[in-house]
Each structure stands twice: as structure tokens, then as C-alpha cells.
């Protein structure tokens, strides 16, 4: 009797075990090729060129429990490139030539060439959105020429080229636009801005003086309706960081109000507030920027211990910031590109108004006033109460 009761209790659990699929579809880690970066180009004839970056585990050494780089077999990474009439076909060709199965889980950077960006990003976004293992938080960047050339950069401080590009966005030295941002922008009309890279050739001391490609950050690419239609310069791109409240650990300089000599400040933190206001049938935006700075260096004789002088510096910093932001917004409005998503705030605050504006939003955005205010506080002037220039001037006056 006891055995019969035990059997009836175990029977449901046994049936559940039969329904478990197990690991029938697993792929061993040694059978995976981890994609770390994707470089996309397109010719004028409509042919796609897809380049995928991979680390090479067989060239990574492990010593003392930490992964390192083997110096005996060349670079610990490779780039595989294929061309085809569509992105999926090019990727299928890459998969056919690899001895491992593609894994998209480690891809954090997508670089597109300028030609592809101007022809349209929709095919790329279509592929990324439908690939279940692709991270939509991957950064999107635009190359000034071919994206494939960016993959040839020399990673001096990092192990792989993709890590260099990822750090550019993570450290906020340029726009950190992600695939998710572009996909969300497509729902609101397709306007956004993406980081623009620059590339050159220089002698690499770390590579025994050999000349090699280096990659840096430039301005930003203006994207309207999924297509690149223009550019922002470096100052305008940085103004975009201010608008998004992402400016931090950066340096800004201005001329002293006393003698015109440069004074540099480091930005400790920034905060941006974007507020749409709809009153009496008209819309305008109010953008408020708050920031805290520290004096980094001064070549001026200005007395930084004088509160009135510091107040003048804060006013000049605020005015300079307002001018840059207004100039950037004026450019995006002239191009009819809502690059920083001001329309989203209208949708959140006035959903009924947005329903009326959304079909003609670019034209409305072009003619919508934007009022910018800034309040910059110099938090610390440093342990030196006087600049070296001022100290030398005072010593000279004493001796004379």
C-alpha cells in the first residue's frame, strides 16, 4: 500500500521529466565564432560588403589565470569580408567559409560606410531587428569612407579594434547612439544622429615605427528618415552631448575677461532638461542646462579668489554654452532633422498635440522656437589661489 502511494506521487514528476527537451540544440563554446564588430559598406551599384570581426582564441594565451596575447602567431583577431546583393546572403557566405558557428552575443559595435549611410540604413536595421541574438544596445557609428578601412586600425591600448570604438562611445567622447536608438527613432519619424569617425595613417611607436591606420572621433552624421543627409562638426556634436545631458569629464576653455589669456575648465557633471510648452495654440521648447566645472589651468592674471571675477567666468561659460547649443539646434532645424528627439517630449507631454503634428513634424520643428538657458557653476578653483602667471607678475612688481 505504501509503495502504491509513493508510485502515484512520483508519477507526475516522471511525466514532467519526459517533456523536458534537454540540451539537444546546444553548441559547444569551442564550435562558436564570436562576432565582436560589424562593418558595413555598399557600392553605388547596390552591392553590400559585410565585414565581421572575430577574436582568435588559438592566439590568446592564458597565464596565471589571466588572458593575454600570444606574440608568436600575429594578431589575436581577424576580419572576414564577403560581398552579395543583400546583407543576409553576404553573412551566409561568411558562415559557409568558417569552421565555427556565428555567435552575435558579443557584437557591440556596428560601423557603416558613408555611402551606405546616405543610401539608407533600413536594410541593416531590418537584419539587426530580426536577429534574436543581436544586442540592440550595440553602438552605431559612421565611417568617413569605407567602414572596412576602420577595421584595420591599430589597437594600441586595447586588444581588439572593436574595443577602441566601444570605448569612444562608452566614455562619451562622441555620441553613444545605439541600434535601439535608431529603431526607436524610426517609430517617431526616423531622425537621429550617430557618431562620425575619422581615419588617418601615422607612424606607430608601439609597432616599432611602422606606419599604420589610426582612428579617432569627429563630428556626427545627421540621419533623416533612415538616411544620412548631413554632418555636424565637432563643436556641434559636443553640443548634442550637452543637450542629451551626457557631457562629463571634458575640458572647455575661454579667454579671460581681464587680459584675454586662456583659462581651461574640466566639466564634472551636467544635467539637461527639455520641456515642450504648448500655449495658445503655439509650441515652443525650453532647454535648461546645468553644469559644474573645476578650474583646470589658467594662463591669466585673473584673481580666482575674487567671487566677482569667478561670477564673470560663470557668466561667460554659460553664454558660450548657450551660443553653441543654439547654433547646433539652428542647423538641425535648417536641415529639418530632429536629431535629438525633441518630438518625443511633445509626445510624452502632449500626446493629443503630437497626433496632430507627427505627420508634418519636420516642417513644424523647423519653425518651432527653442529657448536655451544655462547655469554653469565653477565649483572649485584649485589649491593654487593664484596662477603662476599672476605670481610672477606680482614678484616682478615687488622687485621693481
From TrEMBL:
GO biological process, one term: spore germination
Keyword Ribonucleoprotein carried by entry: no
Membrane topology type: Lipid-anchor
UniProt domain Spore germination GerAC-like C-terminal: residue ranges: 218-382
Keywords: Germination, Lipoprotein, Membrane, Palmitate, Signal
Ranges where the Spore germination protein N-terminal domain occurs: 26-194
Subcellular location field: Membrane
Assigned GO CC terms: membrane
Main subcellular localisation: membrane
Superkingdom, natural source: Bacteria
Family from the record: Belongs to the GerABKC lipoprotein family.
NCBIfam families for the chain: spore_ger_x_C (TIGR02887)
Full protein name: Spore germination protein B3
UniProt source species: Paenibacillus solanacearum
Amino acid at each position: 500500500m505504501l509503495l502504491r502511494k509513493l508510485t502515484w506521487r512520483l508519477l507526475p514528476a516522471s511525466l514532467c521529466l519526459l517533456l523536458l527537451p534537454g540540451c539537444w540544440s546546444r553548441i559547444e563554446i569551442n564550435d562558436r565564432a564570436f562576432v565582436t564588430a560589424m562593418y558595413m559598406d555598399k557600392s553605388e551599384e547596390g552591392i553590400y560588403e559585410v565585414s565581421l570581426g572575430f577574436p582568435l582564441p588559438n592566439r590568446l594565451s592564458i597565464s596565471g589565470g589571466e588572458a593575454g596575447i600570444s606574440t608568436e602567431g600575429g594578431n589575436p583577431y581577424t576580419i572576414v569580408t564577403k560581398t552579395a546583393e543583400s546583407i543576409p546572403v553576404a553573412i551566409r557566405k561568411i558562415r559557409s567559409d568558417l569552421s565555427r558557428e556565428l555567435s552575435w552575443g558579443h557584437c557591440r559595435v556596428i560601423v557603416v560606410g558613408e555611402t551606405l549611410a546616405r543610401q539608407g540604413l533600413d536594410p541593416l536595421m531590418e537584419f539587426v531587428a530580426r536577429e534574436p541574438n543581436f544586442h540592440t544596445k550595440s553602438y552605431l557609428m559612421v565611417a568617413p569612407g569605407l567602414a572596412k578601412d576602420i577595421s584595420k586600425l591599430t589597437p594600441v591600448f586595447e586588444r581588439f579594434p572593436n574595443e577602441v570604438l566601444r570605448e569612444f562611445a562608452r566614455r562619451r567622447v562622441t555620441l553613444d547612439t545605439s541600434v535601439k536608438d535608431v529603431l526607436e527613432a524610426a517609430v517617431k519619424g526616423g531622425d537621429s544622429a550617430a557618431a562620425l569617425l575619422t581615419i588617418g595613417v601615422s607612424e606607430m611607436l608601439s609597432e616599432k615605427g611602422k606606419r599604420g591606420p589610426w582612428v579617432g572621433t569627429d563630428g556626427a552624421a545627421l540621419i533623416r528618415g533612415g538616411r544620412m543627409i548631413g554632418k555636424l562638426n565637432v563643436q556641434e556634436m559636443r553640443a548634442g552631448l550637452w543637450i542629451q545631458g551626457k557631457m562629463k569629464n571634458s575640458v572647455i576653455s575661454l579667454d579671460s575677461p581681464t587680459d584675454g589669456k586662456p583659462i581651461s575648465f574640466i566639466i564634472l557633471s551636467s544635467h539637461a532638461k527639455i520641456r515642450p510648452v504648448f500655449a495658445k495654440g503655439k509650441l515652443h521648447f525650453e532647454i535648461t542646462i546645468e553644469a559644474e566645472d573645476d578650474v583646470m589651468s589658467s594662463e591669466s592674471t585673473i584673481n580666482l579668489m575674487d567671487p566677482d571675477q569667478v561670477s564673470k567666468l560663470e557668466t561667460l561659460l554659460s553664454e558660450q554654452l548657450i551660443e553653441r547649443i543654439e547654433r547646433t539646434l539652428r542647423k538641425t532645424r535648417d536641415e529639418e532633422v530632429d536629431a535629438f528627439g525633441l518630438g518625443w517630449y511633445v509626445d510624452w507631454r502632449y500626446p493629443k498635440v503630437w497626433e496632430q503634428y507627427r505627420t508634418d513634424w519636420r516642417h513644424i520643428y523647423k519653425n518651432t522656437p527653442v529657448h536655451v538657458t544655462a547655469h554653469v557653476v565653477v565649483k572649485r578653483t584649485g589649491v593654487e589661489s593664484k596662477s603662476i602667471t599672476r605670481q610672477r607678475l606680482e614678484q616682478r612688481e615687488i622687485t621693481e
